[in-house]
Amino acid sequence: MKKWKCKVCGYVHTGENPPDNCPVCGASKEQFIEVVDQAAQDTESQWQCTVCKYIHKGAEPPETCPVCGADQSKFIRFDPAQEAQSQKEPESLSQPDIEMDSFAAKVYQIISNHVIAHHLHPISVHIPNGVIPLAVILVLLSSMFGSGSVGLAAFYNTIFVALAMPIVLFTGVVEWKQRYGGTYTNLFVTKITCGGVVFALSIILSLWGIFDQSITTGELSWFYIILYFIMLAAAGIAGHLGGKLVFKE
């Protein structure tokens, strides 16, 4: 049933057509406008990315998702009522695309479920993201003041990053596969690549520090410092992209 609103006094009439005159203020039927169901209108003009859950408002979905980069085919019409109902139900996660014997697959699934349920990737990723900037500062101070002890502190911090990165990468891949369906978009490829760069550089810098403990004060200290800044930049980019996925901005 349609609804009509009097533009003069705000009276709302229910019926297929507006009344000849407003029963409240006496305005003619020309003063009535049809009231559009805003909720239904919003539903028709909202689209959800099936990869990262970004909501787009418009007559059509965007060509690419501004958050994760998924193409237009990954968008579906968004229904707020259905979304509210789905939030009351347990989250459905993608099954791992692996070929293992049944025992190994069960173990992997149990670990993966804990990774998702306890948000282990965002927790673990804060370890290198917090330690790498400190390591960069220590390397700079060691090079500037010729302090071997400060350089040693940077070395230990780098080893800590190298030990943490396998956990970060594993939990990140699990979350990507189960929460985002393992979709290959520029965002995910860049994020995974940056994680690999951080891991590789942490290994290289750690080994370099083992074989040359005076590297921060030696002739190649400038190159050593550049590698630290590359590692810091890669961690920063990965963190920024992770933030886009979380906040949908």
From TrEMBL:
UniProt keyword annotation of Nuclease present: no
Signal peptide, first to last residue: none
InterPro entries: DUF2231_TM, Rubredoxin-like_dom, Rubrerythrin, RUBY_RBDX
Domain of life: Bacteria
Organism: Candidatus Magnetoglobus multicellularis str. Araruama
CDD domains assigned to the protein according to its UniProt record, in alphabetical order: rubredoxin_SM
GO molecular function term, any single one: iron ion binding
UniProt name for this protein: Rubredoxin-type Fe(Cys)4 protein
Keywords for the protein's UniProt record, in alphabetical order: Iron, Membrane, Metal-binding, Transmembrane, Transmembrane helix
Residues annotated as domain Rubredoxin-like: 1-35, 44-78
Transmembrane region(s): 130-148, 154-176, 188-210, 222-247
Keyword Metal-binding among UniProt keywords: yes
